[in-house]
Structure formats: structure tokens, C-alpha cells
Amino acid sequence: MRKFFDRTNCILGLSPMDDVTNNPFRRLCREMGADMVITEFISAEGINHAAEKSKRKMDFEERQRPVGIQIFGANEDELLKCVEVVEERHPDFIDLNWGCPVRKVAGKGAGSGALQEPERLLRTTAAVVKRAKVPVTVKTRLGYDERHKIIAELAEALQDVGVAMLSIHGRTKTQMYGGEADWTLIGEVKNNPRMKIPILGNGDLTEAEQVVEKWKRYGVDGVLIGRGAVGNPWIFEQSRRLLDGKEKRIIGIEERKSVCMRHLRELVESDGERVGLIEMKRHYAGYFKGLKGVRETRIRLMEAKTEAEARNIIETATLEKI
């Protein structure tokens, strides 16, 4: 996987997030310094049934490369069947989601639900690796629950079946997104002398300083930044500057407004006004985090009915540094 990256130090990747890592946001994060991006997770069954939403989720632009298409499913046959369809899009790699903790996914044995059945997880992963013509990567968690943190053994087994890169979220399935991410086992996996594939860490990376600290402390090959990038695509640029020994650039209010309005415009162009406005709601808090007046501005933006109204709110917002 290293062949996809010019970097010899920390790889900065955008973590896949449902209804977040769509084309406009991936484009923005790549421009802001992300070394790679991954699509929203896509159901293997949705792909195989040519569902319109699934087809749209697989779309990406050449300028986003290296880009991975992430798939999920509990049924091995469905996963194998969708590989050929996915490869018709010519992604740089296919990412297998064995980490999603939400009930509608994990409850059916997909995502992190498969961590209860590691033998099935490995058998299915091996079959997908064998079927695919592009590298197959995996994103997973420490284990199913506190008593079954199996990631150290699982990582070795995933490497043995041919996985090209492994991304680990520092929580268990039952933790969902609560509590603190535990990076100690991620570091243990990376520092296992048997492990040769790139290991990326994920979890609780909301500031550039945390990215640098985790990279130095645990020795991972890179990180995936998820919620920390929502409404804050600059985290990639800021992280790279700190990793390169440069001063962190502080993002001014006018730049925040400008990029926020661009993001809104591109979401509306991509998905239509109604959906674009809904999707943008996830990002407003991040764009104006830490500014005086953000609460009132965000409330108004959440109630905006048109793109024009939202743009006017952003342009005229009275925001100040605290």
C-alpha cells in the first residue's frame, strides 16, 4: 500500500463515515492535505441489486486518488459477487468494513458484529482477497467487547490471508463511540515484529496535536481521521505542518465562512437542495467551533429552508474569537 503514497512519514487518511464522506467532502479533504480518502460504506447487497444510492456512493473523481471503496455485508456470496462491480469503478483499493457498530449493521453479523465470529470474518476476508484484483484493506475495532479484545491475534491472521493494510479503531463494538479510544492495543499490533503491512490508527483525533502525539507515541504508519474532520477539513493541513516541523496555521473566520459556503454549494450541486441542506447540518458546528456567536448562528442554519437562506446566514453572521 505504501506505493500509493509519497509520504515516508505519517499517512493522513479520511476515515469513511456514512452520509459524510461523500464526493464533495472527500474532494475538500484531499485539497486540504489528506493523503487518501475512502467512500461511505456501501452494502454489498445494494451494489448487487444496482440500487441507485449504492451506485452513487461508488462515484469518485480522479483527483481524489488514492481512493478506496468501502463495502460491508455478512453474506460471503454477496460480498464476492459485488467485488467485480466495485472493480469496474477502478478504485485503488477495496476496504472491508468489519468495524461499524450500529445495530442495523452489526446486528446482522456485518461490520463489528463479525468480531463475535472471527473464523467467519477471516474466511470471508480471505475469499474477498482471492477474488479481488486490487488490494483489499480492512477497517475494524479492538474486539466485540471488553472481555474479547482480539485485535492482536486477528491482525496477524488478517495479514496472513493477504490484507494489504489494516485500520484499527481504538474501541470495541459495545463501546460504540462512547468513552475514550484505547490506542495501546493499536500500538501493540504495530510493534509486533511479525506485522509487515501498514497499520493505521483511528479514534479521538480532533486536533492536529493529537495526530502527531499518537503517531510518535505508538509508531503507527498513519491515521484515519473521522469525526475530527467533520466541519474541519483543515485538520489534515494542520497535522501535516506539525509533522513537518512547521508552525500550525490558524484558520481565520472569513476563511471558515468561505469554505463552509463552498461545501454547502457543492453538496447542493451533488445531491439537490433538500438533501444537501440536511447533510450540511453535520458540519456547521465544526466550521465555527470555538467562536463567539456560534450557537445562535448554528440554530439559524439548522432551520434554513434554502441554500440562499443558509448562505445569507453564514455571510452575515457576527462571529468573533473568544
Helix-strand layout with pairing:
Layout lengths: L10 E4 L8 H9 L4 E3 L3 E2 H5 L3 H6 L9 E6 L3 H12 L5 E6 L4 H4 L11 H14 L4 E6 L9 H10 L4 E5 L14 H7 L8 E4 L5 H11 L3 E4 L8 H10 L9 H19 L1 H8 L3 H4 L3 E2 L1 H10 L3 H10 L3 E2 L1
Parallel strand pairs: 1-2, 1-9, 2-4, 3-4, 4-5, 5-6, 6-7, 7-8, 8-9
Antiparallel strand pairs: 10-11
Q: Can you describe what's shown?
A:
The protein has helices spanning 23-31, 44-48, 52-57, 76-87, 103-106, 118-131, 151-160, 184-190, 208-218, 234-243, 253-271, 273-280, 284-287, 294-303, 307-316; strands at residues 11-14, 36-38, 42-43, 67-72, 93-98, 136-141, 165-169, 199-202, 222-225, 291-292, 320-321. The protein has an eight-stranded parallel beta barrel, surrounded by seven helices. Helix 1 (23-31) links the parallel strand 1 and strand 2. The protein folds into two domains: 2-243, TIM Barrel, CATH 3.20.20; 253-321, Non-ribosomal Peptide Synthetase Peptidyl Carrier Protein, Chain A, CATH 1.10.1200. Helix 9 (208-218) crosses helix 10 (234-243). It has 322 residues and is an alpha/beta fold.
